[in-house]
């Protein structure tokens, strides 16, 4: 089930009418302490400044990932409307009006032809309404509908990217889950055996590793990651876990964190009560959870490009998938 196996998390996904782009939403049952770590040189984000450790309020009721480059930021409108419509959000400082604090990030999947972009506010609204706790569809769905990987030889030779997820139960600390949307400039490989899993193809169908041919058009890419855990930890510890999560990204995607990538990691906790584990030395907890997060990020990225992903459907079919198989 991946990320939705973490308590207090729902995931929803929806695509444009032509199926070429979409939105993935991650909703929390209550305001979740959240941090962000941006490592890519060409990121596009929504309301991440208020997640800095010196900011007054660092909680979120949801995270969104969207295609469409800057157009995709409109998904925040639909997500916010959907959250408020179902009674979510919070009343800040005793104000009678509810607000829905959300953050998000975008990836570049724009077609190289003129045309009006889809209504990302509407796609975001549908994705939020489809949010559920069941298995998460993986591959070219939601925000990963138009994702590609291995663009260092040009987008025409790039492989398919997509959405991937993974999770693990941790001793005395509940579960830790990851969702990744992979649209990287770099290629994907298994760090355990060095085998290339996705990237530009040679004439014989094998993947051309980075640096083995002359430079092509890198285009633009991004890997977007949400890490959610159940243990109650202060936000500085969550920030250290975000650093480890980026390590998992860098071990699996080559190159990672490029000047034309927008690599972003969000880390949130849905814990309602303080866990005995959080009373331990915070540095030890950050290391233990961080190492697990890095491994799960790598697993989610590999799942996003796995041949066993959800089969593609006709492009002309309008699709809207929630957290279901």
Topology diagram in text:
Elements lengths: L8 E7 L6 E17 L6 E2 L12 E8 L8 H11 L16 E5 L13 H10 L18 E2 L9 E2 L1 E8 L5 E9 L3 E3 L6 E3 L23 E8 L5 H18 E2 L9 E6 L12 H23 L15 E3 L3
Parallel strand pairs: 4-5, 12-14
Antiparallel strand pairs: 1-2, 1-15, 2-4, 2-14, 3-5, 6-7, 8-9, 9-12, 10-11, 10-13
Task: Give the key terms.
325 residues, 15 strands, L-amino peptidase D-ALA esterase/amidase, alpha+beta, three-stranded antiparallel sheet, 26% strand, disordered C terminus
Explain what this protein looks like in three dimensions.
The protein has one domain (2-307): L-amino peptidase D-ALA esterase/amidase (4-Layer Sandwich). Helices cover 19% and strands 26% of the residues. Helix 1 (75-85) runs parallel beside helix 2 (120-129) and helix 3 runs parallel beside helix 4. Mean pLDDT is 89; it is low at 310-325. It is built from 4 helices and 15 strands. It starts with 8 loop residues before the first strand and ends with a strand. The radius of gyration is 18 Å and the shape is globular. It has helices at 75-85, 120-129, 235-252, 282-304, and strands spanning 9-15, 22-38, 45-46, 59-66, 102-106, 148-149, 159-160, 162-169, 175-183, 187-189, 196-198, 222-229, 253-254, 264-269, 320-322. By secondary structure, it is an alpha+beta fold. The strands form 3 sheets. Strands 1, 2, 3, 4, 5, 8, 9, 12, 14 and 15 form a 10-stranded mixed beta sheet that branches.
Helix content: 10-25%
CATH architecture: 4-Layer Sandwich
Q: What is the 3D form?
A: globular
Low-confidence segments, ≥5 residues, pLDDT <50? 310-325
What is the CATH level 1 assignment? Alpha Beta
* Count of runs of 4 or more consecutive helical residues: 4
> What is the count of β-strands?
15
End-to-end Cα distance, whole Å, is 9 Å
Assess the beta-strand content as a share of residues: 25-35%
The biggest beta sheet, please?
Answer: 10 strands, mixed
CATH topology value: L-amino peptidase D-ALA esterase/amidase
Order of helices and strands: EEEEHEHEEEEEEEHEEHE
Q: Give the averaged pLDDT, no decimals.
A: 89
At the fourth CATH level, what is the homologous superfamily?
L-amino peptidase D-ALA esterase/amidase
The number of distinct structural domains comes to 1
What's the alpha carbon Rg, rounded to whole Å? 18 Å
Broad structural category: alpha+beta
């Amino acid at each position: 089930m991946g990320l939705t196996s973490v308590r207090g998390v729902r995931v929803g996904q929806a695509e444009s009418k032509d199926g070429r782009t979409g939105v993935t939403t991650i909703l929390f049952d209550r305001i979740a302490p959240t941090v962000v770590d941006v490592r890519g040189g060409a990121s596009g984000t929504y309301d991440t400044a208020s997640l800095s450790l010196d900011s007054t309020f660092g909680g979120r009721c949801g995270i969104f990932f969207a295609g469409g480059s800057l157009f995709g930021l409109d998904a925040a409108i639909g997500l916010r409307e959907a959250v408020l419509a179902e009674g979510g959000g919070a009343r800040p400082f005793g104000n009678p009006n509810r607000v829905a604090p959300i953050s998000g990030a975008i990836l570049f999947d724009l077609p190289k032809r003129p045309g009006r972009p889809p209504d990302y506010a509407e796609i975001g609204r549908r994705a939020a309404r489809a949010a559920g706790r069941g298995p998460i569809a993986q591959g070219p769905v939601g925000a990963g509908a138009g994702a590609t990987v291995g663009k260092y030889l040009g987008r025409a030779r790039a492989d398919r990217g997509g959405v991937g997820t993974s999770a693990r139960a941790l001793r005395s600390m509940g579960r830790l889950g990851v969702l990744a949307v992979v649209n990287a400039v770099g290629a994907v490989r298994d760090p355990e055996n060095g085998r290339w899993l996705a990237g530009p193809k040679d004439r014989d169908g094998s993947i051309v590793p980075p640096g083995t041919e002359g430079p092509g058009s890198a285009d633009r890419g991004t890997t977007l990651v949400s890490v959610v855990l159940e243990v109650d930890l202060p936000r500085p510890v969550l920030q250290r876990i975000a650093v480890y999560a980026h390590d998992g990204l860098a071990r699996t995607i080559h190159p990672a964190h490029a000047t034309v990538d927008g690599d972003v990691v969000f880390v949130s906790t849905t814990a309602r009560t303080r866990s005995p584990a959080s009373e331990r030395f915070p540095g030890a907890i950050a290391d233990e959870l961080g190492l697990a997060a890095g491994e799960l990020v790598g697993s989610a990225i590999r799942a996003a490009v796995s041949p066993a992903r959800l089969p593609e459907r006709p492009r002309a079919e309008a699709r809207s998938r929630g957290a279901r198989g």
